[in-house]
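Design request, tokens follow.
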């Protein structure tokens, strides 16, 4: 039944057959999407990358082709030669690009057969992700997945065209490099030629792109593969793609203008959407104060409301104790929600799962306040509370009192959870903006030391460098924290619909400032040389002022396509456990390979 391909030549894609082809003899090839035998006439929907076309095989006109067509099944690979005609009136399918024409087959060739599929190739089919990834090549035959990959391909062209027009040089950086601490675990690769030594796969091209600036490649870009061994979720993969670029002799606004240009180009070329000429700026502190997040979703309200001053003299011991220790009290007002006690308890439980001891609340009803805590408040506190939150009958106000960072965590997550659960998020809008004026470092309670908010090569605002020097000499930890927290970073993150899609900074180009930052981060000279020696060496040889940014390309594409997971825009992704069901990776290797790389695996 299966025939050779030697004498067959495809003229065009199935999905591109149109009314312009009526009367022409053409050849198409593809997969059998559906077969319908109407007794004497067989209809085959033939599918390829560009779409589906209807093929008609008539027994009376062509018994040989009909006999072959009668034996084909879903996903057989066919070649068809025949004449294009207009579909009979009343049989048109306006949902298809090719819905007004059909091909009357003169010849049908079966190039390959197919076993029964583990799942049907239909968009609406509900299949476990494990099964879809196990047979990813079948999943990619679906129209939606095909469109995603073609969309991704078009994005690559838009990106390269944009950077090329702006005078950037595309440079590939190494995949086998040195292990450096960048916030996540490295994937490591043993060296056969150097026993006991390892390469690391790059978490980002950060160090290399800075070295390119030292080399005088003043405008670099790359669509770069990055690899991180971290816990996974819907928006994370162990290998992902960045749009990465770096520029010399620039200020923040120069780098940000390029980023805005890239995103505007993608939206204009791929979606026909015109984004603003200049994206709004929101300071880090304002974002945290209003939304409890440095990547806020602003498509709905529920902003955090400051109440620390309202309760500074309260008799309510829970709030008073927190305020006396330097903590804060904030609230969100879920207006007009009329939540039941069960719904309130579910929201309390949600915050408790984040680590909160509890969540205070007040339900405003006609003529009274329903809450177990309101009895502890004075009349003045109640009046100020109602005024500040704008609470009216039907509203439910939730409170969090704790350390500032924890209040942001609990209420920021609660706000987002309510927005998603109760359908408050306005769809169909694109809210893109910058978050700027980040602190350079924050104190990590668990580690007991300062940590970079971005990475240790982020430059501080020049007039704040003196505070870093002061902080190094300060012996009182609380005063030191206050000094360091007031140092601003020359950093900027771009946010789209509540997702951080890119971030960058002006880099440190002076060795003395880099030493200051390393010292405050508790990175000693030996560790700095061991981890970043090649970059620090390069900084000694005339490093220009420079800065850049990296976009998470997979995340941008998923948001643009309205997808929940970046796995749907990656051709061959891993599961949430970091497994590839298609290839069974990761897997064991042979004892010979282990011996060659000088590795012994313990049971």
């Amino acid at each position: 039944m299966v025939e050779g391909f030697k004498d067959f030549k495809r003229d065009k894609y199935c999905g591109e057959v149109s009314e312009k082809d009526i009367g022409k003899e053409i050849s198409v090839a593809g997969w059998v999407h559906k077969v319908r035998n109407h007794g004497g006439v067989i209809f085959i929907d033939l599918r390829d990358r560009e779409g589906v076309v209807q093929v008609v095989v008539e027994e009376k006109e062509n018994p040989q082709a009909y006999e072959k067509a009668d034996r084909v099944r879903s996903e057989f690979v066919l070649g068809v030669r025949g004449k294009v005609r207009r579909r009979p009136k009343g049989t048109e399918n306006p949902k298809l690009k090719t819905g007004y024409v059909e091909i009357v087959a003169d010849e049908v060739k079966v190039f390959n057969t197919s076993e029964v599929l583990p799942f049907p190739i239909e968009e609406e089919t509900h299949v476990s992700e494990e099964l879809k990834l196990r047979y990813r090549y079948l999943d990619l035959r679906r129209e939606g997945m095909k469109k995603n990959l073609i969309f991704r391909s078009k994005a690559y062209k838009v990106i390269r065209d944009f950077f090329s027009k702006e005078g950037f040089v595309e440079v590939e950086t190494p995949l086998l490099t040195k292990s450096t601490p960048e916030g996540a675990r490295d994937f490591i690769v043993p060296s056969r030629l150097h026993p006991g030594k390892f390469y690391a796969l790059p978490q980002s091209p950060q160090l290399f792109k800075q070295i390119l600036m030292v080399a005088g490649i003043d405008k670099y870009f790359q669509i770069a593969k990055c690899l991180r061994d971290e816990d996974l979720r819907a928006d994370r993969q162990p290998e992902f793609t960045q749009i990465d670029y770096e520029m010399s002799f620039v200020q923040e606004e120069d780098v940000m203008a390029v980023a805005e240009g890239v995103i505007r180009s993608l939206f204009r070329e791929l979606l026909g959407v015109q984004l603003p000429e200049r994206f709004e700026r929101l300071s880090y502190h304002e974002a945290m104060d209003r939304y409890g997040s440095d990547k806020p979703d602003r498509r709905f309200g529920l902003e955090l409301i400051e109440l620390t001053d309202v309760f500074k003299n309260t008799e309510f011991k829970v709030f008073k104790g927190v305020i006396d220790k330097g903590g804060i009290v904030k609230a969100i007002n879920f207006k007009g929600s009329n939540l039941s006690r069960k719904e309130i308890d579910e929201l309390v439980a949600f915050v408790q799962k984040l680590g909160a001891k509890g969540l205070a609340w007040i339900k405003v009803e006609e003529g009274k306040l329903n809450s177990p805590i309101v009895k502890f408040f004075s009349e003045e506190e109640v009046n100020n509370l109602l005024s500040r939150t704008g609470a009216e009958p039907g509203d439910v106000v939730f409170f969090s009192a704790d350390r500032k960072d924890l209040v942001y965590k609990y209420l920021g997550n609660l706000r987002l959870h309510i927005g998603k659960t109760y359908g408050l998020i306005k769809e169909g809008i694109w809210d893109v903006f910058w978050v700027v004026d980040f602190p350079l470092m924050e104190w990590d309670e668990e580690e007991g030391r300062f940590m970079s908010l971005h990475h240790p090569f982020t430059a501080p605002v020049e007039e704040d460098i003196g505070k870093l020097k002061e902080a190094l000499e300060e012996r009182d930890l609380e005063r030191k924290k206050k000094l360091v927290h007031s140092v601003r970073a020359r950093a900027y993150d771009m946010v789209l619909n509540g997702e951080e899609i890119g971030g960058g900074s002006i880099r440190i180009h002076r060795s003395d400032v880099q030493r200051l930052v390393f010292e405050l981060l508790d990175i000693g000279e030996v560790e700095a040389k061991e981890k970043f020696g090649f970059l620090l060496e390069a900084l000694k040889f005339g490093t220009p002022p420079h800065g850049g940014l990296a976009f998470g390309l997979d995340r941008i594409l998923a948001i643009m396509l309205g997808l929940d997971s970046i796995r749907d825009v990656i051709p061959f992704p891993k599961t949430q456990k970091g497994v590839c069901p298609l290839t069974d990776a990761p897997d064991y290797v042979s004892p010979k390979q282990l011996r060659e790389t000088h590795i012994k695996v313990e049971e």
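Comment from the thread starter after seeing the answer: thanks! The CA atoms of residues 557 and 563 lie 8 Å apart.
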